[in-house]
Amino acid sequence: MESAYALVHLANGTTSIRSLAEGETFHPVIGPVAEAEALYVRQLGLAGRMAVCTDPEWVLWDVGLGSAANVTTALRHLAGIPGRLRLVSFDHTLEPLRFAREHAAELGYPLGFEGPMGALIEDHRCTFTHGALAVTWQAEVADFPERLRSPGPLPAPHAIFYDAYSPARNPAMWTLPLFRGLFARLDPLRPCALATYSRATLLRTTLLRAGFWVGAGEATGEKEETTLAANDPSLVARPLGAAWLGRALRSTSAEPLEDPVYRQAPLSEASREALRAHRQFQAA
Ligand SMILES: C[S@@+](CC[C@H](N)C(=O)[O-])C[C@H]1O[C@@H](n2cnc3c(N)ncnc32)[C@H](O)[C@@H]1O
């Protein structure tokens, strides 16, 4: 059977994966490892937060597992931290993971993780040690919005990689009901930060309306700015302020998606009121 994925050689000499069905390349500009390092590992301060955490395990949600570039890069950076890491990866297909495992040598980042990746494909769960880390890795193979709505328990995360396809192509992964459901899965007593590659106004208004504190995220080499959100303001270094709110109120593409259908619209009256009343914009 022909694969639905293909290897792509990027201009900077790295190799990534392209979904032929979706017409989207994973990590298209700076490559998988550099993007994972800048956007998720460094920006979320994973190593520093994990090293001082006194919880029995550190829980990391990996939304859009894909080919596991984000997860394997994080594991390499966290190898020196003695502790327990629970990785909860979400995707409705394990085919990109299978493809990446089969092309481990060309891609590079799966090398050394072929065993856990194989076990995840077979059993949707595995445990292994990586340096000083004791890792439990589970795959939630389901439509992510549906999985959030289902009653099955999920451990509350300390950090979230949010790496779906773009809102225009993958609107079901960017709706307000989805992010409300995600926020409801957080433990209010467990600070959690979420990073994602988009800086779109529509994404940021959605996160704010779902209950997050939202800030500008670091540049990644591909994007001048990304987005960092959290349930605890101390995790958001550069919170969006009055100037951003002013621009959002004037934007023609700011209203959160209620349904999984992409469309662009200015903020509704209800959204305007909710944003103006958000705790983030109340400070002096
Ligand atoms: C950009 S790729 C992720 C790349 C990945 N993080 C990596 O490191 O290789 C987006 C992923 O989101 C998944 N996805 C898209 N819509 C989804 C949905 N409704 N439910 C679950 N996963 C979804 C796709 O199958 C795809 O693997």
Structural overview:
- With 284 residues, the protein is an alpha/beta fold.
- The protein has a single domain (28-281), classed as Rossmann fold, CATH 3.40.50.
- Helices cover 33% and strands 21% of the residues.
- It has 11 helices and 11 strands.
- An 8-stranded mixed sheet has the order 6-7-5-4-8-9-11-10, with helices on both faces.
- α1 crosses α3 (69-78) and α8 (176-184) crosses α9.
- The mean pLDDT is 95.
- It binds S-adenosylmethionine.
- S-adenosylmethionine is lined by residues 26, 64, 66-70, 90-93, 96, 143-144, 163-165, 170, 172-173.
Q: What is the helical fraction, as a range of percent?
A: 25-40%
Q: Could you give the count of β-strands?
A: 11
Terminal CA distance? 61 Å
Q: What's the number of structural domains? A: 1
Strand content bin = 15-25%
Strand order of the largest sheet: 6-7-5-4-8-9-11-10
In round numbers, the mean pLDDT is 95
CATH topology label: Rossmann fold
Bound molecules: S-adenosylmethionine
What low-confidence regions span 5 or more consecutive residues with pLDDT below 50?
Answer: none
The sequence of SSEs as H and E is EEEHHEHEHHHEEHEHEHEEHH
**By CATH's scheme, which homologous superfamily applies?**
Vaccinia Virus protein VP39
Specify Rg, calculated over alpha carbons: 18 Å
Global morphology: globular
The level 1 CATH classification is Alpha Beta
- Secondary structure class reads alpha/beta
Reported for the largest beta sheet, the result is: 8 strands, mixed
Q: Write the CATH architecture name.
A: 3-Layer(aba) Sandwich
- Number of helices in the DSSP assignment: 11
